[in-house]
């Protein structure tokens, strides 16, 4: 369960290539800027994001959101999963769809943040959105449809994410989307400045850039996939998962992501 790298983690697109999309390459034959400009923006973004990412481990909303993901997976294995979900303020009927489920999850996080002295933060909102995306992107392929089926279909989909392998996938997707949204928080300022200029001429270019960034971060988060799965099964078996030990795990996982950013910055 240590931070072990087996060679280079494969990525669908190198980080500097992602940044190139903001500056102009890969978009309608536009001319690329000097490589020094591209490298400077990539390095600066990773430097700032890496430092600020450390704040996530102390954010109440981020910690609760990750903890809730573990509870959703565990609830799916219960005989009465609707009752288990109810313990976390998530209320489903037999007719509830995947869309209803994700809406209830978001509402439960909102209520928790509403009771927190710090309230919602930028980080907690990023985590909340990332959790919703992670659930939808993985569970949708395992259910009849987003708006069809019922509670049992949703439970079956979530049960497939409650194994060691399944929760590893869920963890990778959550941290990947979190990292993507986090980096985009900084890079969106660049895209906003470039939109309408020669280098970034239309919203379609922004969409392609966002897709490249999402894909890159999903692959970067592979470093925590097996770690998530191993921790989830081991902890639940030995002591049960609660907010405290889930928060400790979150801190380690975030440190792994920060180390990954440092390695990318040095590459």
Q: Could you explain the architecture of this structure?
A:
This protein has about 270 residues and is mainly alpha-helical. It has eleven helices and no strands. The chain has one domain (about 1-265). It is globular. The relative contact order is 0.17.
Write the layout of secondary structure elements.
Blueprint: H1 15-23, H2 35-53, H3 60-75, H4 81-86, H5 98-115, H6 122-139, H7 151-159, H8 164-194, H9 203-220, H10 225-238, H11 243-266
Helix pairs in contact: 1-2, 1-9, 2-8, 2-11, 3-6, 3-11, 5-6, 6-8, 8-9, 8-10
Concise account of the structure shown:
This protein is an all-alpha fold. Helices cover 68% and strands 0% of the residues.
Largest sheet: none
Number of helices in the DSSP assignment: 11
- Uncertain runs: 1-10, 26-33
Computed over alpha carbons, the radius of gyration is: 19 Å
- Secondary-structure element series: HHHHHHHHHHH
Distance between the termini: 25 Å
Secondary structure: helix percent? 55-70%
Number of strands: 0
Number of domains: 1
Shape: globular
Helix-strand category: mainly alpha
Calculate the mean pLDDT score and round it.
Answer: 81
The amount of beta strand, in percent, is under 5%
Descriptive terms for the model:
single chain; 267 residues; mainly alpha; 68% helix
């Amino acid at each position: 369960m240590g931070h072990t790298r087996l060679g280079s983690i494969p990525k669908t697109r190198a980080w500097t290539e992602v940044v190139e999309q903001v500056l102009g390459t890969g978009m309608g034959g536009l001319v690329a800027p000097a490589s020094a400009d591209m490298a400077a923006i990539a390095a600066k973004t990773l430097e700032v994001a890496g430092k600020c990412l450390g704040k996530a481990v102390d954010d109440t909303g981020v910690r609760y959101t990750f903890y809730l993901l573990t509870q959703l997976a565990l609830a799916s294995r219960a005989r009465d999963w609707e009752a288990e979900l109810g313990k976390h303020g998530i209320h489903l009927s037999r007719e509830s769809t995947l869309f209803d489920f994700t809406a209830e999850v978001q509402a439960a996080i909102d209520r928790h943040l509403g009771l927190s002295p710090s309230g919602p933060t930028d980080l907690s909102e990023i985590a909340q959105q990332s959790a919703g995306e992670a659930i939808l992107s993985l569970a949708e392929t395992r259910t009849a449809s987003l708006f069809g089926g019922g509670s049992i279909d949703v439970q079956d989909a979530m049960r497939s994410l409650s194994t060691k392998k399944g929760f590893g996938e869920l963890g990778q997707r959550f941290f990947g989307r979190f990292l993507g949204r986090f980096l985009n928080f900084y890079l969106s300022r660049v895209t906003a400045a470039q939109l309408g200029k020669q280098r970034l001429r239309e919203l379609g270019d922004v969409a392609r850039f966002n897709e490249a960034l999402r894909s890159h971060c999903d692959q970067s988060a592979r470093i925590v996939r097996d770690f998530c799965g191993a921790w989830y099964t081991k902890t639940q078996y030995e002591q049960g998962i609660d907010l405290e030990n889930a928060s400790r795990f979150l801190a380690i996982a975030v440190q792994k992501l920060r180390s990954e950013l440092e390695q990318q910055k040095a590459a």
